[in-house]
Amino acid sequence: MPTLSDPTVVDTTDTIDDLPTAVPCHARDELERRLLRKLDLRMSILLILHTLNLVSQSDARLQGFEQDLHLHGQQYAMTLSIVYAGYIVMQVPGNMFLHWLERPSVIIPSCMLAWGTISVLTGFYTGVVVARFFLGFAEAPFVPGIIFLVSKWYKRDEVASRIALVTCGNVLSSAFGSLFASAILHGMQDKLGQAAWRWLFYIEGGITIVVAICAMFILPDFPHNTRWITPEERALTISRLAEDGCVKADELGNQTTMQGLRDAVCDWKVWWFSVAAMSQMVGQPFLTYFPTLCATLGYDTTVTLLLCVPPWVFTGIVAVVLTWYSDKKQRRYKYVVGSNALCALAFIISIFTMDKTARYISLFLMAQVAAGYSVILGWINNTFAREPAKRAVAIALVNTLGQTGNIIGSYVWLSSWGPTYRYSYAVCTAALGVSTGMFGGMYLYLRHLNEQLERNERDVKEISELRDPIGFRYLV
Fold first, then answer.
1. Which residues have a Cβ under 8 Å from the Cβ of 69 and sit 6 or more positions away?
2. pTM
3. What is the 3-state secondary structure (H, E, C) of the chain?
4. Contact at 8 Å (CB) between 16 and 249?
5. pLDDT above 70: residue 336
6. What is the Cα–Cα distance from 33 to 276, expressed in whole angstroms?
7. According to the model, what pLDDT value does residue 289 have?
8. Between 20 and 30 A from 65 (CA), which of 97, 139, 268, 434?
């Protein structure tokens, strides 16, 4: 029985040697294209799983959620923020367990099964705070888990676009979840004696359970233990990662889970990214309140939910294009700056006008900041690419502290500040300014490290003296 301190034993040198060195370039290219198509198709189940998180409590709020549960004052904000408490507790242990057990095809769908079940029970259980707390436990390993899984299969200049594709489910759920909610809230009121908002939880949870079971047979594990890839594809996957400088072939998997925890906790870059991510999330909690912000335009519930759709469709397109271009150019920070600047502009527009057209356009500019966050996730992955165990912890730790920003942000959108929410927008603008500045500091530091790597390669006498693979550079 393995323990958390046991290294993952992978005979990667032999595996890589299985790929014939005399294979023509065009044959390898064709094999690589087939491998990526197969992986992308299998990974697409993650997009579906993420999209199935359809139910927004903000949607339910528009149809009597608060009144039926007798929520007053800050109690609604508490039901939103309590879910992040579960996130904070479970994200790091969840990713450590994923790295140790090496079975994401079991762990990730199991999390989905749990949260689908809790979602169904939320419709029955009036203690919504308790239900939301355990929902956070169930959902916690999902996002850091899929980010880590993607990083185990794709090269550094492929990661951001794949993260965007699988996490676009969050964007799609925000868009089409509103359509879904509109149909349910409009047509299911008092069916079988249940309020329409309860049917939201029942239906979404049931669908999630079914798809999660299917995902167990579709998702990959890690390159060395996935059963449905050929030996040639396995060898190519590992050699691609080694050539990309992610990890030395003879060290792949030799770092234990506990070593990864120690290395991540002791690396100041992890904490810097974590605080920056927390500030970023303080600046974008309006995503949770999006239907509420649309409601300030003055339309009825159905029209309000329909108006939520176009900004999120726009965001999905921006996310795919932005991350693809970021991967192609192998640049990260300037795309983060551009996304945050557009979001800050939207905040300023909303502060100074109540014109319906201007405020609706600003919602498009606000929503696209989710695309910029996909670039940030790719950047964090790239920075810790060469140490898998450390990367697993770093991803979860950054995401965990980022979620504390969501807890803080949940209390920024006070009902008493509506319908203008000028103070809310001002707080979010300041938070995005702080995060952009902190990411800028990391950009300067990593660029300095790249200059140092270049000098070392130029001045070294023996290649064996180099600590890093030749040509390795941090993506900035």
1. 126, 128
2. 0.82
3. CCCCCCCCCCCHHHHHHCCCCCCCHHHHHHHHHHHHHHHHHHHHHHHHHHHCCCCCHHHHHCCCHHHHCCCCCCHHHHHHHHHHHHHHHHHHHHHHHHHHHCCHHHHHHHHHHHHHHHHHHHHHCCCHHHHHHHHHHHHCCHHHHHHHHHHCCCCHHHHHHHHHHHHHHHHHHHHHHHHHHHHHHHHCCCECCECHHHHHHHHHHHHHHHHHHHHCCCCCCCCCCCCCCCHHHHHHHHHHHHHCCCCCHHHCCCCCHHHHHHHHHCCHHHHHHHHHHHHHHHCCHHHCCHHHHHHCCCCCHHHHHHHCHHHHHHHHHHHHHHHHHHHHHCCCHHHHHHHHHHHHHHHHHHHHCCCHHHHHHHHHHHHCHHHHHHHHHHHHHHHCCCCHHHHHHHHHHHHHHHHHHHHHHCCCCCHHHCCCCHHHHHHHHHHHHHHHHHHHHHHHHHHHHHHHHHHHHHHCCCHHHCCCCCCCCCCC
4. yes
5. yes
6. 36
7. 75
8. 139
